[in-house]
Amino acid sequence: MEGLSAELLLRIIVFGAVASGIWALAASGFSLIFGVVRILNFAHGTIFVLSAYFGITLTNYGVNPYVAFVASILFAGVFGVAMYKIALSPIRESKVMVIIVTLAIALLVEQILMMTFGGHGISFPSLVEGVVYVAGVPITYKRILTFIIAVIALISLEFFITRTKTGKMIMATAEDMEAAMLIGIDTEKALVITMFVSSILAGLGGLLYSQIFATTPIVSLKALIYAFAIVILGGLGSVRGSIVAAFIVGYTLAITISLLGARWSEFVVLLTIIAILIVKPTGLYGVEE
Fold first, then answer.
1. Which range marks the domain in which residue 262 is found?
2. Looking at the domain assignment, is residue 288 inside a domain?
3. What CATH number is given to the structural domain containing 140?
4. CA 20 to 30 Å from 63, out of 52, 185, 216, 260?
């Protein structure tokens, strides 16, 4: 029994870490764009999935998986910026129109992917192969790599926002756009960079997800729901709060799936989020207006 308990605990730790890292990437990107641009990008889950399909397509045409991985992340960033410049920037002041347009883009892309690839699950090729045994429990190298990449990306995001000149420009824009303009900050440039960073975070999360799990067009909705729920739990606009909330959600998923089964996972996660919001309505790192 002790061996079984230890094995189960290790599986929860590993699965929770991987799920938390992936959802932290998606949620931090969603939170970043809301915190700076003040829009709810309902096409965020679409970028999450689109980068995976783009990478899979490249590898199907013989492109090296590592090259395809990097190219897909950049593609996600370019797609996000193009979407912002063409569709969102002209209507940015209308919150309702932004929601409608991003939802329309999400539905359009989902249908295109469904017609092109079908509804069956496909995966991005593993960047690393092999298994390591810890206390008799097999842990694939790709799961370890996924968590390491996610942690490096999140640390890099924190450094970028707090320590670089561009990051400080973005934060100043988020605090007060009019004041930022008065002191000479190019706020439009800050918004474009924010959209780029937000999109590459979603794209990276989607690629890592597709290595571990099967990706389908419907996953875009799942990614959006998880990102939105995590952002609300962490506190709207708080990237750090989103990361903490992602680990709460990730480990809640891992524990629930391990003990009760996958069908209970979303239900328990939502109950956990509701319980925390009852105690702290503004979210973990949110503040009263």
1. 2-279
2. no
3. 1.10.3470
4. 216
Report CA 156 to chain centroid distance, whole Å.
15
Of the candidates 43, 83, 104, the residue with the CA atom closest to the CA atom of residue 228: 43
CB under 8 Å to 101, separation ≥6 — which residues? 87, 88, 91
**Neighbour-count burial of 50, counting CB atoms closer than 10 A to its CB (0-12 exposed, 13-18 middle, 19+ buried):** buried
Helix (H, G, I), strand (E, B) or coil at 131: strand
In a domain, 285, yes or no: no
Digit-coded pLDDT (tens) for 146-187: 999 999 999 999 999 999 999 999 998 988 888 888 888 999
- The C-alpha angle with vertex 39 and arms to 38 and 41, in degrees rounded to 5, equals 145
pLDDT digits (tens, 9 = 90+) for 195-235: 999 999 999 999 999 999 889 999 999 999 999 999 999 98
Strand ranges in 62-193 using DSSP code E only, listed in sequence order: 131-134, 137-140
Q: Report pTM.
A: 0.93
Rounded (10°) CA dihedral 177, 180, 185, 187 = 0
Instruction: Kindly report, residue by residue over 57-96, the tens digit of the pLDDT.
Output: 999 999 999 999 999 999 999 999 999 999 999 998 898 9
Q: Does residue 269 form part of some domain? A: yes
At residue 135, φ and ψ (nearest 5 deg) are 55, 35
Q: Between helices 239-259 and 265-279, what is the axis angle to 10°?
A: 140
CA distances from 184 to 22, 178, 195 (A): 36, 10, 20
For helices 141-163 and 165-175, the axis angle rounded to 10 degrees is 70
- Domain count along the chain: 1
Is residue 286 included in any domain, yes or no?
Answer: no
